[in-house]
Protein: V-ATPase proteolipid subunit C-like domain-containing protein
Organism: Guillardia theta
Amino acid sequence: MSAMLPSAGFFDDWLILFEQVSPYGLADIGIGISIGVSVLGAAWGIFTTGSSLVGAAIKAPRIRSKNLISVIFCEAVAIYGVIIAIILSTKMATPEAFPQNAAECNTLEALRTSWPRLPGDGSKCQGSLYMKNLLFAAYAIFNAGICVGFSNLFCGICVGITGSGCALADAQNASLFVKILIIEIFGSALGLFGVIVGIIMSSAAAIK
């Protein structure tokens, strides 16, 4: 990577590298991770459960209807991601104008502006109230998206594997269905934990 840098010492550390990313970009990436990774978890779970359910239903057709609840649990994981993505999207607004000087960076009006790279001297807003509020909101939305997305990914995998075992066990012994379903319900609660934490993390964030 050092060969790609324009000159020695161009980036003092990785923090400077992250500071070059637009806060709007970070927030949008967080929203994308929230919905994208959640859908990945749901698809993975449905694939795992569905393949076992279809195969076991050949020998035991009676399991087809009641084991669809496992597919519903997996689909709920994607719904969690959609809900959080919508909530995070409402915390962002279209930027209006750039602050023109250092004094404007600390005004309330400047909090409604866009990425603080001003024409010419891009450091006028560094360390200002404007910059601090913008970065706080951007990182809050970004990390909330990561939290929700990966929580739902692992939740979907958990529910999918448990649902697969539930279908196979039910095909062999119908009395095992309710017992394994309880385990599946506890597994589906893992995604809710991520949703709750994500909402709390982003509750004070607002990019305007």
Remarks:
- The chain has one domain: 23-202.
- The radius of gyration is 23 Å.
- Helices lie at 14-19, 23-59, 68-89, 129-172, 176-202.
- The longest helix spans residues 129-172.
